[in-house]
Design brief:
heterodimer, A: Uridine Diphospho-n-acetylenolpyruvylglucosamine Reductase, domain 3, Vanillyl-alcohol Oxidase, Chain A, domain 3, 3 domains, eight-stranded antiparallel β-sheet, B: alpha/beta, Rossmann fold, globular, oxidoreductase activity (chain B)
């Protein structure tokens, strides 16, 4: 059968949809599907909210279009089908001395999803976003396949375009040579926000990321652990096979006191003087992937992730955000701070020069108000929120955050006048309204 | 080369018949990662070329797409020649078969021949020519993927079931023959597997991913098992279904 009625959700498990999914296994089947039923393509549903949902509509699940088609070791170009997961690329191609230029925090994300959300990684300040390293891609449109390169105006609408220019079938990615198959990681405690930002500004490491204790207040506000990594030669045991969270955790598992206690212990895990450790590549790039379905730790009601980027000059707003979050007692242990560079691949891409802060919140009744407050602060500061994660932005806030939205919507509407590719996210934020 | 070839040994060549199916793709990938040579056989050459490239990048010593149509014996000879020219142990895994809805077959009984060719006589004819090569080398395994539908005829798909039952019996005889020379044959009876064929079908339960079937096949090959059900519990489900007396069974619609 072609279509299956499925109930599915984003990674946060808060927004859910019921609709029909097709799961083609061959490119020719994809061609046939897009001719007969133009609809959005979705990958492994690692965007947090409703960007991968099409309630009461149809969508194409690309999970089985996941083959690696070629590796050109002279040019450093990898060609893959869009459903190929980034973690598989690291596992299979990493040992040959090549890595994608950009890797997000989960290896379960697909190449198609990484393009559609123009994801960034721990090296964004040097390497830019995922879409900037796409040499070409093939869109499967009702009238046939279309190769899109950076010279094409559809390219900037597709990269970061949340699938609104149609299903991607294959992509050619520029790869980088690694120095070796392991990661040398320096971890150090950071006592507060000012020190954090200073360390980020001065870090010369290729990869940097900071865990931040979002429950800390007062003098410790913004404390955390900074990780700086470089690929290197060495020997470590291969990344361990993941464990699965078998059940939805009870709600108290992430209550305020437990999170505070966990965070304090997690912070002290690193010796005061810091340390350098050697890790398998996957453990550094995708630390949470070892715990399959970790989203179940948030229980049945799910969770939200707020992620914003604010300009360098507006860094003080981070303090206000952390203060608000710390006082609310709503945060989970998952919070990340990073310096971003200016690199972005498309009109609706999230990254911009500044600092990005991401915080997870269990989906308690108080969470939406907290997140709306944070979104307002980000907008006020001239920043923006990441639409791959957003759950509560308002349509009227979008144009201030994404000034190219109208131009982008024009291109999408021209290509898809009936709005066949629209998703729940696009409808919630009126992204394609002119 | 007469030494029995074990898992991980260099020099194993696998012919995958029906290589575009998701179970075949899962098995091919696992074989590729242990360095096997692969001949991916089927009708959709574009798709097979993509899978061959994927297998090469996963570590296959060699992976090539070859044309195979169960209903066209002219496609068999080039494959057999290719196998004969390959050194090392020769192995094959058969995933071909077709399951048109029973209602379509009821409307057009001439479809029966196609189903039987796809699921039984086509692959059997090729295996029959391949068997002497395995005997000559004294090694190798032939994996025949049948179906639990072949264990008992049911109103919903008895033509497909009959073809698979024929194939099961053929595999049993082939095993009886090959064991004399040190080669082996495995009958695989999958229950519900999450493939394009079962996607969206009503009444599916305990659906196994194709990777689980591939793992079960490799384990059976390692342990030289004869008949496996996958997932394993289907053995017991089918034991019960086979035990239902015919006077009762004929009134059921399961």
């Amino acid at each position: 059968m072609t279509w299956k009625t499925v109930e599915y959700a984003g990674w946060g498990r808060f927004y859910r949809a019921k609709g029909e999914l097709a799961r083609p296994e061959r490119a020719s089947t994809l061609d046939q599907l897009v001719r007969e039923t133009p609809c959005p393509a979705i990958g492994r549903r690692r965007s947090y909210a409703d960007g991968c949902l099409n309630t009461d509509g149809r969508a194409i699940d690309t999970a089985r279009l996941d083959r690696i088609l070629s590796l050109d070791e002279e040019e450093g170009i990898l060609e893959v089908e869009a459903g190929c997961q980034l973690g598989e690329i690291v596992r299979l191609i990493g040992p040959k001395g090549w890595l994608p230029m950009v890797l997000p925090g989960t290896g379960f994300a697909t190449v198609g999803g990484a393009i559609g959300m123009d994801v960034h990684g721990k090296n964004h300040h040097h390497a830019g976003s995922f879409g900037q390293h796409v040499e070409a891609m093939t869109l499967h449109l009702p009238e046939g396949r279309r190769k899109v390169t950076p010279a094409d105006k559809l390219f900037g609408a597709t990269v970061g375009g949340m699938g609104q220019t149609g299903p991607i079938g294959t992509a050619r990615l520029r790869m980088q040579r690694t120095k070796g198959p392991v990661m040398m990681v320096t971890e150090r405690r950071v006592p507060n926000l000012d020190t954090y930002l200073e360390l980020f500004d001065n870090s010369e490491a290729t990869y940097t990321v900071g865990w931040i204790d979002a429950t800390a207040t007062g003098a410790s506000l913004g404390r955390g652990i900074l990780e700086e990594g470089e690929t290197g030669a060495g020997l470590v045991p291969p990344a361990k096979r993941g464990r699965r969270i078998p059940i939805d955790a009870p709600h108290f598992a992430l209550s305020g006191p437990i999170v505070r206690g966990f965070n304090a212990t997690y912070f002290r895990r690193i010796p005061e003087r810091g340390r350098t450790v050697v890790k398998p590549l996957e453990d550094f790039f995708f630390p949470l992937d070892k715990i399959h379905e970790w989203n179940r730790l948030y229980g049945k009601r799910g969770f939200h992730q707020f992620q914003c980027v604010v300009p360098l000059s507006a860094r003080e707003v981070l303090r206000d955000m952390l203060k608000a979050v710390g006082e609310s007692g709503l945060a989970s242990p998952l919070a990340v701070l990073k310096r971003m560079g200016p690199g972005r691949g498309g009109m609706m891409s999230f990254p911009t020069d500044g600092y990005t802060l991401a915080i997870d919140f269990p989906a308690r009744d108080e969470a939406p108000a907290m997140i709306r407050r944070l979104i307002a602060m980000a907008v006020e500061a001239g920043g923006r929120v990441y639409l791959a994660k957003d759950a509560f932005a308002q349509p009227e806030q979008v144009d201030a955050m994404y000034p190219e939205r109208e131009t982008w919507a024009g291109i999408c509407n021209n290509l898809d006048p009936d709005g066949a590719y629209a998703t729940d996210l696009v409808r919630r934020l009126n992204l394609r309204n002119l | 080369m007469t030494a029995p070839n074990r898992t991980g040994d260099a020099g194993e060549c696998w012919l995958i018949l029906g290589a575009t199916s998701s179970m075949a793709r899962a098995l091919s990938r696992k074989l590729a990662e242990r360095g096997a040579s692969l001949l991916l056989a089927g009708r959709d050459m574009t798709d097979l070329e993509a899978s061959a490239a994927d297998c090469r990048l996963r570590g296959a010593a060699m992976a090539e797409a070859v044309r195979f149509d169960a209903r066209d014996p002219d496609t068999f000879e080039p494959i057999l020649e290719r196998m004969a020219a390959t050194s090392g142990s020769l192995n094959a895994a058969v995933f071909v078969g077709s399951m048109p809805p029973q209602a379509e077959i009821d409307a057009d009984p001439s479809m029966i021949e196609g189903v039987v060719s796809d699921s039984f006589t086509g692959p059997a004819r090729l295996l029959q020519a391949l068997a002497p090569m395995l005997e000559e080398r004294g090694s190798g395994t032939i994996v025949g993927v049948g179906s639990v539908a072949g264990d008992r005829g049911r109103v919903g798909n008895y033509v497909y079931g009959a073809a698979k039952a024929g194939f099961h019996t053929y595999m049993s005889g082939l095993r009886n023959r090959l064991t004399r020379s040190g080669a082996h044959a495995i009958t695989v009876k999958p229950g519900f597997v999450d493939t394009a064929m079962t996607w969206g079908l009503d009444g599916m339960f305990l659906v196994a991913p194709p990777e689980a079937v591939a793992d079960a096949i490799l384990k059976a090959e390692r342990k030289r098992q004869n008949v496996i059900y996958t997932p394993f519990f289907w053995r017991y489900i089918m034991m019960i279904i086979r035990a239902v007396p015919e006077p009762i069974f004929k009134k059921l619609s399961i």
